[in-house]
TrEMBL record:
Pfam families xref list: CP_ATPgrasp_2
Name this protein carries in UniProt: Circularly permuted ATP-grasp type 2 domain-containing protein
Start and end residues of each Circularly permuted ATP-grasp type domain: 80-455
Regions that span the bilayer: none
Domain of life of the source: Bacteria
Source species of the chain: Pseudoduganella armeniaca
Lineage of source species: Bacteria, Pseudomonadati, Pseudomonadota, Betaproteobacteria, Burkholderiales
Amino acid sequence: MIQQGASVQPSPDFYNEMTAGGSVRPHYREFAAWLAQQTPEAIERKRAEADLAFRRVGITFAVYGDNAGTERLIPFDMIPRIIPADEWALLQRGLEQRVRALNMFIDDIYHEQHIIRAGVVPAEQIYRNAQYRPEMQGIRVPSDIYAHIAGIDIVRAGAGEFYVLEDNLRVPSGVSYMLEDRKMMMRLYPELFASHKVAPVEHYPDLLLDNLRSVAPVGVMDPTVVVMTPGMYNSAYFEHAFLAQQMGVELVEGKDLFVNNNAVWMRTTRGPRRVDVIYRRLDDDFLDPLAFRADSALGVPGLLSVYRAGRVTLANAIGTGVADDKSIYPYVPAIIKFYLSEEPVLNNVPTYQCRHRNELDYTLANLAQLVVKEVHGAGGYGMLVGPAASQQEIEDFRARLLARPDGYIAQPTLALSNCPTFVENGVAPRHIDLRPFVLSGKTVSMVPGGLTRVALREGSLVVNSSQGGGTKDTWVLEQ
């Protein structure tokens, strides 16, 4: 048997999701009792079964530049992250508030710009932002929604407080792993779902499709929705194909679409079919070679002109990335107060903007204790985790900061919460985060849960799959 008291020993410095002060938290008690009855051999057999099933279905993640190959499985852990109903209610309220405010912010900066005139967000932080798209100025989008799908990264630190670590509003990924992890857990351990009231997530594709249809161009009553992918070599291609299949819509590449008569059309075996809503999974720069990168072979020539005319909806909207750039992140609490006249439900992580001389000086003096991030970085790249860095890495990063201070922010190294995880030597705590997915259309909606990512390397705080992280099923318990 797995001796819970011996093998799930939490570090005293981190909030442990399962235990507190040597006792199991109430919402984990039933699961902990079940876990204590499992042998390592039984769990290993289940893990091997899961890996085989994932590989057969093709649930892989492409890692660019990986010498071991272009495709790998994202490690899946069978010990779920469990969230009680009251904690989820708090998270849901905070996430919906945050996404509403961010959508209002994007709409404002491309139209009236009240927030700039009020001095809440400096103009240069918007106009000099790499994700700002002047082509979007004055364009009206259905329901004034820009971030139709948002993935908000949540961490837990200190005594258990929740913090928003990052807003992902461009082409957030990972929801397919949330769905497949749940499907796998129900297949491996049906008895656990019989004894726990776990809120369902499998209706997410239906919710997504309803959301996309709700933001079709004005006057379109039965919209045609497609998922647009860069192609099979994209790191998230499995997810693109999965979501298209689950929603019952076509998966297309740029070469499958064309513009004619101020509309977007899809090539089919029965002739051209008009497209009304494009759930696009490629970056702004590649969408239209006539408007953005002329060398893009992934986009659709003339797409922007149809979009500007309001005759096709893009989800997410062009120019949405200006709101999820790390240079805007420090202003989000003020953005919430400005548009909603509410206090933020969820806290930001304290952030130093290195473009300010005094905050740069503090960062340079404390590099060994801070996490420093590129404002345009993603995927765990372009960052320094001071406590885990060598002296040479710290000095190299110091030179980068001095050369381009406005390209970086710094944050304290959070003591991320940990959760019991099955590793080679048994069950041990590993650090986690959570990415819930928030859908915005006629209403704001979400499924109860999200993608829990886990840093499988002992002591690591980097959960990204591209950096060796894995995933867990996320259980939100119903009342």
